[in-house]
């Protein structure tokens, strides 16, 4: 229920921003700024003050943060020993030890991370679309619950990637490489961004994207998918290595046990892919600064999802670097459609559907939502670690 309430508040504030009352006001820019700032604080505190919510990663984050030494003890051997005893990426360890200077409370790791990642996202949305609050509503109601609420390290890496987007657009390899180097030190999965930079020029061609999508879907239909074919090939080549063969076989069993489904997300991405191919010229003409970049981000995300269509756990490792572009795409289509208010309420239904699918598909992660304020006020404590453990048995 909390997710629905917050989402509806953001949606109607976004709608109010572009109402005739505000549009005809002499102070419209100031009013929109205040609304945006309020929405930013609302989302930051909602996500940043979460307490033991989201996926199971929070357990490892909390244990790590309680164990790590503050950066003020960097000169001691104990500091480096503690850092090296955990498997997180090096820059995230240092980042956590800096936060530890201000507080020993794990909640500040979430709060500082939310302040940074959401600020970068909000700023980019205000640059990339004329409907930033609607884009934020779409982002919060869909990807934020899975991203910002769960994958802290990766969202910090995503923030660095967003800073590098102008380098991608302007083909500044040195500037891009420096930024992505730091992103990788926050989360190793950011290495996929190097591939994005390299294939970016090819994504401008409809023929390349359509043929790539056709081939990947064909592989899925004929052989069970690109990843399955690759793993089976590697298993055959390295069959002499029993340990490697066992590991590859386990991956296949896990994928099979998950009962791979195309799902709502795949159909949404496919429809958006077709729409991007059809309306690409109009979007680029109308939104010349970021239109092509946003489309290419989405197309790369779609192709990656097709590569791992049979092994969705791999796609989940990479999608957060690209899915933030989808809400922007929806606002572009909002501009292209002649109807003024109908699409807004279509998006309200879309956001509500995603909240339902996200929250109620994994209640042990999100229900009941419990934040740090609730702990201070003495709300009944819920053993969320046990709840998650029971949910995964």
Overview of the molecule:
With about 400 residues, the protein is an all-alpha fold. It is about 75% helix and about 0% strand. The chain contains 23 helices and no strands. It has helices at about 1-15, 20-25, 30-50, 55-65, 75-85, 90-100, 105-130, 130-145, 150-165, 165-170, 175-185, 190-200, 205-225, 225-235, 240-255, 265-285, 290-305, 310-320, 325-335, 340-360, 365, 370-375, 385-390. Helix 8 runs antiparallel to helix 19, helix 14 (about 225-235) packs antiparallel against helix 15 (about 240-255) and helix 16 packs antiparallel against helix 17. It is globular, with a radius of gyration of 22 Å.
Describe the protein's topology:
Layout: H1 2-17, H2 20-23, H3 28-48, H4 57-67, H5 77-84, H6 90-102, H7 107-128, H8 132-146, H9 152-163, H10 165-170, H11 173-186, H12 192-199, H13 206-223, H14 226-237, H15 242-257, H16 263-286, H17 291-307, H18 312-318, H19 325-336, H20 342-361, H21 363-366, H22 372-376, H23 384-391
Helix pairs in contact: 1-3, 1-8, 1-20, 3-7, 7-8, 7-9, 8-19, 8-20, 9-11, 13-17, 14-15, 16-17, 17-19
Span from first to last CA? 26 Å
| SSE string | HHHHHHHHHHHHHHHHHHHHHHH
**Got a strand count?**
0
Structural class comes to mainly alpha
Alpha carbon gyration radius: 22 Å
